[in-house]
Design a protein that fits this description.
426 residues; 15 helices; 72% helix; mainly alpha
Length: 426
């Protein structure tokens, strides 16, 4: 394949890896009732099934670039997939809340490691098509979330019958992670070539002194707080209205399907109109606001329509934020480090949202105020989006990682090398 293009085969690898980054997270929500009956887990602990992995994602994302510099992106992503596979498999024998929470944290750590490395890998592999490929990567992440929501209750009922086997419904995702791991490790055999480049010593710690890095992280975290809250509580919200676990999971899966479409389409559409992503980010936030307002005021709108609108807003905003971070710096290594900081801090911010909304639900008996809170967050985000003027990217990131390294003709420097060679190894 051409050195400037990772090609279709590598795109398939990216999709397979990305499918594993949300399935474990969305699989527990539709099975909440049988899990609670079997383990006695309360609402605060249920929220931790989302909060803990999100915190773990954030913490691991912050150190993911350093791990990649030591063992390469290939080894780092493989390590993350091993953690996800082991965590999901352990749920088959989980006997109580503690085991479930431990597995959630371990899977979140694996996801954080993968997410810290993949944006730079994508930018390295597809320098001329970063918008399209980032959209594909983001869409696959959302698609994995949809698979988790709809397939886990189906597997649980198929195996357990009238008494759903929630262990099997949660553990099934170990198979997908193992398959993606084997495919990823077989990457050497693909005709995917990149120019050799020296590893760069980059530290996300430098981002702590950057206002732009913090702004990106805050926006990313607040946007994803809406997603984590819906993953944690939307099926239960409809269960309170008499819906079955399968029906609640189907609504979550439908929302995720809309996320997939938006995550895939929005970066490509935005890129076709120029570098300014602000109008498109505002559009996705308006869609989120409409969906949360419909839930808050119990508008006479079908659940299907609300799920689609929310999914469009959340999926489009997620992928556009990824492109936004990568656009700030031309070098893949530096852009990847900035994206890792954005995700690391952002996911820890997002982890607070389901805890807050769960606390509100427990003390009010319903979700009305929880949805109102999420709508207010979107309103606060709207003016922040106007600050991302592409003409100011250089000024906003000046001196963040020192002088910009020059790029050799036609080839972008990689984040860490895709091969897991250590420094000095050819």
């Amino acid at each position: 394949m051409r050195s400037r293009d990772g090609g279709v085969a590598f795109a398939v690898v990216i999709v397979l890896v990305a499918l594993n980054l949300r399935a474990f997270l969305t699989s527990s929500s539709p099975l909440l009732e049988p899990i609670r009956l079997a383990t006695g887990i309360g609402f605060h602990a249920v929220a931790l099934l989302t909060v803990l992995p999100m915190f773990a994602m954030g913490a691991t994302s912050l150190c993911g670039a350093a791990v990649g510099q030591r063992i390469g992106a290939r080894g780092g992503v493989a390590l993350g997939l091993v953690a996800i596979a082991f965590a999901c498999a352990s749920r088959y024998v989980a006997g109580g809340a503690a085991a479930l929470l431990w597995s959630a944290a371990l899977a979140g750590a694996g996801v954080g490691l993968v997410q810290a490395l993949m944006p730079g890998v994508v930018k390295q592999a597809y320098p001329a098509r970063i918008g399209v490929m980032t959209g594909l990567y983001s869409a696959a992440i959302m698609g994995g979330g949809g698979l988790g929501a709809i397939a886990s209750p189906w597997v649980a009922h198929a195996i357990g019958g009238a008494q759903p086997d929630w262990h099997a419904g949660l553990a099934i995702w170990a198979l997908l992670a193992t398959f993606a791991l084997l495919y990823w490790l077989n990457m050497r055999r693909m005709e995917f070539t990149v120019a050799d480049a020296p590893r760069q010593s980059l530290s996300w710690l430098r981002c702590f002194a950057s206002r732009r890095a913090w702004l990106l992280a805050a926006c990313f975290g607040l946007i994803n707080g809406g997603y984590t809250s819906l993953v944690a509580w939307l099926p239960h919200f409809y269960a309170q209205q008499g819906w079955t676990a399968q029906q609640g999971g189907s609504v979550l899966a439908l929302m995720t399907a809309a996320q997939v479409v938006a995550a895939l389409a929005m970066p490509a559409i935005a890129r076709s109109r120029g570098r300014d992503l602000r109008p498109w980010l505002v559009l996705t936030l308006v869609a989120q606001l409409a969906g949360f307002c419909a839930l808050t005021f119990d508008a006479p709108v079908p659940a299907v329509a609300i799920a689609v609108v929310l999914g469009f807003g959340l999926g489009g905003a997620f992928s556009l934020c990824m492109v936004l971070a990568l656009d700030h710096l031309p070098d893949p290594a530096q852009a990847g480090a900035l994206a890792a900081f954005m995700q690391g801090v952002g996911f820890m911010i997002a982890a607070l949202a389901p805890f807050v909304t769960g606390w509100v639900r427990e003390h009010t008996g319903g979700f009305t105020m929880a949805w109102a809170y999420l709508a207010a967050v979107v309103v606060a985000l709207l003016p922040l989006m106007l600050r991302f003027d592409p003409r100011r990217y250089g000024v906003a990131t000046a001196g963040l990682f020192g002088p910009q390294p020059q790029q050799r003709s036609g080839v972008a420097h990689p984040l860490p090398a895709l091969d897991s060679a250590r420094p000095g190894k050819p």
